[in-house]
Design goal:
single chain; 193 residues; mainly alpha
């Protein structure tokens, strides 16, 4: 409506004028810039908001996402995205989503970010649950880290005392490695169990 009426730029300018002492106005301005694909404009505003409210998941995820995208052009943005994800981990240590994203940022920018342990910590959030092992193995698998995925599955099998746990997934990983006899063994063991 504002675009059609020719008032969008005027309204956004007024909004930017209110940002200094008004986090709601700052967020609205950042979202408007993001919506218009002006990511370079929204990034510093979102980063400030994320630092001011480190436990706000919505703002943190948006800030990290924008900075991660901009890191393709400026590697320093990856460090900003990582810092936001670390703050989200501290704010909600049992939520695995920020750990997954932090590990992904590390894989995309390995010289910038120290985050490889982010995925290894996922199973330790609920050590008696199968889900953490599967999630950690899956993200390794998604990044073609087959040996790490298989180690995670093996750790889950040992800790949960279930030697056929995730047999299908382990079989599929072995297939990706073209280790067909190991894949068949996993599938058979899983089917028998």
């Amino acid at each position: 409506h504002l675009t059609r009426a020719g008032k969008l730029n005027t309204e956004l300018a007024a909004l930017r004028g209110m940002m200094a002492n008004n986090p709601a106005a700052a967020r609205m301005a950042a979202e408007a810039a993001t919506w218009r694909s002006h990511f370079e404009e929204s990034a510093p505003i979102l980063l400030t908001l994320a630092k001011d409210a480190p436990g706000d998941t919505a703002v943190g995820e948006r800030a990290a996402s924008v900075h991660r995208s901009l890191a393709a052009y400026d590697w320093r943005k990856a460090a900003d995205a990582s810092a936001v994800e670390l703050a989200l981990i501290k704010a909600a240590p049992r939520n695995t989503n920020a750990r997954v994203r932090l590990g992904e940022i590390n894989r995309d920018f390995p010289r910038v970010i120290e985050g490889k342990d982010a995925w290894r910590a996922i199973p330790e959030i609920e050590p008696g649950s199968e889900q953490g092992y599967l999630e950690a193995a899956t993200v390794h698998w998604d990044y073609f880290e087959y040996d790490a995925a298989l180690r995670t599955i093996q750790n889950g099998r040992q800790k949960l005392q279930n030697p056929t746990l995730f047999a299908y997934e382990a079989g599929a990983i072995h297939e990706n490695q073209r280790a067909y006899s190991k894949a068949i063994d996993e599938y058979v063991n899983g089917a028998v169990a």
